[in-house]
Write a structure and sequence with these properties.
By secondary structure, the protein is an all-alpha fold. The chain is 39% helix and 2% strand. It contains five helices and two strands. A two-stranded parallel ribbon has the order 1-2. Helix 3 links the parallel strand 1 and strand 2. The longest helix has 19 residues. The radius of gyration is 16 Å and the shape is globular.
């Protein structure tokens, strides 16, 4: 979506937020060949650099669509300089439940260190802004803080390639 709305991506970056990759066409990584996946991620990365400036290495976090990937995908991502980001809280907002239910689901699932996935409204989740307006103060009231992803170099190794 960065190609369609580069000004929004630029604004997000200017506000200090990180942007990760999700693939060029939201196709499950299990449906792509290794070269198709690599090209999809590099194309997304290049589009972000063009829209937001910076260098490709600033856009290395990858959340696989639907959470689907093969074990080899993890090896490939690492070899290509990317790192996978999964989630621990998913309120199924793409099904467009009422905002109050999205908030309730997040609050019921969240724990220290949780990664919450909310959708942008392009494929459901049209009420993400409204849900976020409720979630941020509710989570802060419960003592949660919001942080960016760690640098991949600071993460423990999961073994050899």
């Amino acid at each position: 979506r960065v190609q369609r709305w580069p000004h929004l991506a630029r604004q997000i970056r200017q506000q200090g937020h990180g942007i990760g990759l999700h693939g060029w066409q939201h196709r499950s990584f299990t449906q792509l060949s290794r070269s198709e996946l690599h090209n999809s991620l590099r194309r997304s990365q290049a589009t972000l650099v063009a829209a937001c400036s910076g260098i490709p290495e600033e856009y290395r976090a990858v959340r696989p669509p639907n959470g689907l990937f093969w074990p080899q995908t993890l090896v490939d991502l690492r070899r290509w300089g990317f790192f996978p980001v999964m989630w621990s809280v998913v309120p199924e907002d793409w099904l467009e439940p009422p905002v109050a239910l999205v908030v309730e689901r997040v609050l019921a699932q969240v724990r220290p260190g949780s990664l919450i996935v909310l959708h942008d409204g392009v494929r459901g989740g049209s009420q993400v802004a409204e849900a976020t307006r409720h979630l941020i103060p509710a989570l802060r009231e419960k003592g949660f803080d919001f942080v960016g992803l760690p640098d991949p170099g600071d993460l423990p190794s999961c073994g050899k390639d």
